[in-house]
Design goal:
With about 250 residues, the chain is mostly helical. The protein is about 80% helix and about 0% strand.
Length: about 250
C-alpha cells in the first residue's frame, strides 16, 4: 500500500497547488478506489490538507497572488465550521457522505461554468465581515464533513460573486483550507478518527507536488487555468458517480 500512497501524495499535492484545493476533492475518491473506507479516507485527506494548504499558501504569498485581507474573516468562519464538521462526520452514513460529495461537485461545476472571466488586477467586490464569516462557517461545516478543504465551493463563489480573477481566487481558496483543515483535524483528534500513519505519508509526499503545482499555476493563462479547473470537476464527478452507483 505504501508504494501506491507516495505517488498518490505527489499527484494530489500538484493538483492542490495548481487548482487551490486542499486535495481532498481528489484524494478521497482515490483512497476509496484503493480500498479505504470513506471515514478513513476523509481522515487521511484532512491530514494531507493541513500540510499542502500551509505550504501552498506560503508559496502563493511569496509570489504575490494571495490576498490575505478579507480571507481572514472567511478563514475564521471556516475554522469554526471545520471544527464542528469534524464531529459530525462520525454520525453520518458513508452513502450519505458520498451523495453529498456529488452534490458539492455539481454545484461548484455549475457556478464556475457560468461565471465571467475577470482579469488580473481588476476590482473585486467586498462583503460585510460578518457575512464573510458566515460564508466560511457554512462552507467549513459542509466541507470537513465530506473530507475536503472547502475551496471547491469557495473558489467559484469568489470568481462568480466577488469578481476575483481566477488565479487570486484559487490562492484564496487554498488559504481558506489552512483554517478549515486545522480545525477539522483538531476535532478529529478528540474523537480519534484519523489514520495518522498513512496520512503523514501522503502529506509529506504531497509537498513535492504542491511546489510544482504552484509553479505551473503561475505559468498558464487565466483562461486555460479555468478550463483546466472545469475539466478537473468533471473528472471528479465521473469518478464519484462510478464509485457510488456502479
Amino acid at each position: 500500500m505504501m508504494i501506491e500512497l507516495i505517488p498518490t501524495g505527489i499527484f494530489v499535492g500538484a493538483m492542490s497547488g495548481f487548482f487551490g484545493i486542499g486535495g481532498g476533492t481528489i484524494l478521497v475518491p482515490l483512497l476509496l478506489v484503493l480500498g479505504f473506507a470513506t471515514k478513513d479516507a476523509i481522515g487521511i485527506s484532512i491530514v494531507q490538507m493541513v500540510f499542502s494548504s500551509i505550504y501552498g499558501s506560503y508559496l502563493n504569498h511569496k509570489k504575490g497572488s494571495l490576498i490575505i485581507g478579507e480571507g481572514i474573516f472567511v478563514g475564521l468562519g471556516g475554522f469554526v465550521g471545520g471544527y464542528i464538521g469534524g464531529y459530525i462526520t462520525q454520525y453520518i452514513a458513508d452513502i450519505i457522505l458520498q451523495v453529498l460529495f456529488v452534490g458539492l461537485v455539481v454545484f461548484a461545476l455549475f457556478r464556475l461554468l457560468v461565471s465571467k472571466q475577470h482579469e488580473e488586477g481588476s476590482t473585486t467586490k467586498t462583503l460585510n465581515k460578518a457575512l464573510l464569516f458566515f460564508i466560511g462557517l457554512v462552507i467549513g461545516i459542509f466541507a470537513i464533513t465530506l473530507g475536503v478543504g472547502g475551496s471547491i465551493v469557495l473558489t467559484p463563489i469568489l470568481v462568480g460573486l466577488l469578481h476575483y480573477p481566477i488565479k487570486k481566487a484559487v490562492s484564496a481558496g487554498l488559504f481558506f483550507v489552512v483554517f478549515s483543515s486545522i480545525a477539522g483535524m483538531s476535532s478529529r483528534l478528540v474523537t480519534g478518527t484519523i489514520d495518522f500513519e498513512n496520512g503523514f505519508l501522503i502529506a509529506i509526499a504531497s509537498l513535492i507536488g504542491v511546489w510544482f503545482g504552484v509553479w505551473l499555476k503561475e505559468h498558464v493563462t487565466s483562461k486555460n487555468h479555468k478550463v483546466a479547473l472545469l475539466i478537473l470537476y468533471v473528472i471528479i464527478l465521473i469518478m464519484l458517480i462510478k464509485k457510488i452507483w456502479f
